[in-house]
Design goal:
The protein has 208 residues and is of the alpha+beta class. It has seven helices and six strands; from the N terminus they run ααββαββαββααα. The strands form two sheets. Strands 2-1-4-3 form a four-stranded mixed beta sheet, with helices on both faces. The protein starts with a helix and ends with a helix. The protein binds zinc ion.
């Protein structure tokens, strides 16, 4: 398995910082575990082979990785799910069996991820708002060649977005509350800590 991973003979499950293990690249599990949906959707911390936390996924996806032999449970949450042949302890923390290089900038550039990075906060006036009341602002306007990139897109309320228009922030006498950056491992770990607030078993991996 490890060798195949190294020389890339088969597609690997995507375990990036995006919190997404794409089922589409994984063959279906041999015996899909059946259980209550709430259990299957509970969050599971994903560790690299080196025990570095890299991701949060759902129990269902964690079980797929375990059944595939890609990951093993490091912590379980004292309940079981049953496949056709055996009972499996529900994982709370899993660890990849072979090391995965995680590129610094592996999160997909998307509206959802920009809002997540900016904590649903307008980067001009600082208002924290529901996603429906936020838009994405191109710091350097598209009309002036501004690109859609992590460094040029920020969450903005509609008021600030309209006020800024096709101008640079300083031209509109506005300023960014902070410089937009790609989703970093640091940001990602803060988010994992937030998501794992109630998960006692995660603490030793996330707080050190
Ligand atoms: Zn605003």
């Amino acid at each position: 398995m490890e060798n195949r991973h190294k020389i890339g003979l088969r597609p690997r499950p995507s375990i990036g910082l995006g919190g997404v293990v794409h089922d589409s690249v994984l063959p279906k599990p041999v015996a899909p575990p059946a259980s209550r949906p709430s259990v299957m959707q509970a969050p599971v911390l994903v560790l690299n082979a080196t025990f570095e936390p890299i991701n949060v996924t759902a129990v269902r996806r964690a079980l797929v990785l375990m059944l595939k032999g890609v990951a093993q449970a490091e912590e379980t949450n004292h309940s079981e799910v049953h496949s056709t042949s055996k009972a499996i302890q529900v994982p709370s923390v899993i660890r990849l069996l072979s090391y995965r290089h995680i590129p610094q900038q592996s999160r997909a550039l998307s509206r959802k991820n920009i809002l997540l990075r900016d904590r649903n906060t307008c980067q001009f006036c600082g208002a924290a708002l529901p996603a429906s009341e936020l838009t994405l602002d191109h710091v350097m306007p598209r009309s002036r060649g501004g690109r859609s990139s992590w460094e040029n897109l920020v969450a903005s309320c509609y008021t600030c977005n309209n006020r800024k228009g096709d101008r640079l922030p300083h031209e509109a006498h506005m300023h960014l509350t902070r410089q937009p950056r790609p989703f970093s491992l640091h940001t990602s770990r803060q988010l994992m800590r937030l998501m794992g607030r109630g998960e006692e078993a995660w603490r030793k991996y996330l707080f050190f």
